[in-house]
């Protein structure tokens, strides 16, 4: 644990969701004004999104091959092109329209949905500290969910995925050691039997795939879509 990147400290187990329990959590702080924007669909589709085209893309965006931006683009493209695990569907959305198409594919075209995000009630520059569960977590009923995560790229890319196995969604009121207050979105994946045993969550939590549910908090620039029941 001493050598683990603190950015991995977002994972926990269901038994941790008790009032008064404390745990170390990493919440990145990103200014939305400086984040890449989602492109309109026609503009996004005019730019190739493929690992095979990476050299051309680097020239298009004026990044050198050994730059941090190039490595981030390569990692994002690789993750988007990797195979889904059994029981999961995933999609990298490069426009709002394509994200909504994916949501409709999961929930059905006539299903309304709501967006759940983590909210920082107080403002500070502290990224990593111990947080205490202040109130009984509120479970959000959700027969299915779509989770979307921002990925590093010159324009906004949302890695969205949905699993057919059971997931539970919570809103959790947290208080930091420095007085920070966060209303955090958390998802618990109840079946991890198909996950790669090298997934960082198992290193953090210290157990094997399929033995216990894995829960994690969402940073403020990620979100969960749930159908309106």
UniProtKB/TrEMBL annotation:
InterPro entries: BURP, BURP_dom
Superkingdom as given in the UniProt entry: Eukaryota
Ranges for domain BURP: 11-228
PROSITE patterns: BURP (PS51277)
Pfam families attached to this UniProt entry: BURP
Record-given protein name: BURP domain-containing protein
SMART domains in UniProt: BURP
Lineage, opening ranks: Eukaryota, Viridiplantae, Streptophyta, Embryophyta, Tracheophyta
Species this protein is from: Hibiscus sabdariffa
């Amino acid at each position: 644990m001493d050598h683990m990147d603190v950015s991995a400290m977002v994972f926990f187990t269901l038994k941790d969701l008790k009032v008064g329990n404390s745990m170390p959590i990493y919440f990145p702080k990103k200014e939305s004004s400086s984040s890449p924007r989602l492109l309109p669909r026609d503009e996004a589709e005019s730019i190739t999104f493929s690992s095979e085209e990476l050299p051309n893309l680097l020239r298009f965006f004026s990044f050198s091959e050994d730059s941090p931006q190039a490595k981030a683009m390569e990692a994002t493209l690789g993750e988007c092109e990797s195979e889904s695990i059994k029981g999961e569907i995933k999609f990298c959305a490069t426009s709002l329209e394509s994200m909504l198409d994916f949501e409709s594919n999961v929930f059905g075209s006539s299903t309304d949905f709501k967006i759940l995000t983590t909210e920082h009630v107080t403002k500070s520059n502290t990224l990593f500290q111990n947080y205490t569960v202040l109130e009984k977590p509120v479970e959000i009923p959700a027969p299915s969910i779509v989770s979307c995560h921002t990925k590093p790229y010159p324009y906004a890319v949302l890695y969205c995925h949905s699993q057919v196995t059971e997931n539970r969604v919570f809103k959790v009121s947290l208080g930091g050691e420095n007085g920070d207050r966060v209303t955090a979105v958390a998802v618990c994946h109840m079946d991890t039997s198909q996950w790669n045993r090298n997934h960082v969550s198992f290193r953090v939590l210290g157990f094997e795939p399929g033995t216990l549910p894995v829960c994690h908090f969402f940073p403020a620039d990620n979100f969960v879509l749930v159908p309106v029941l």
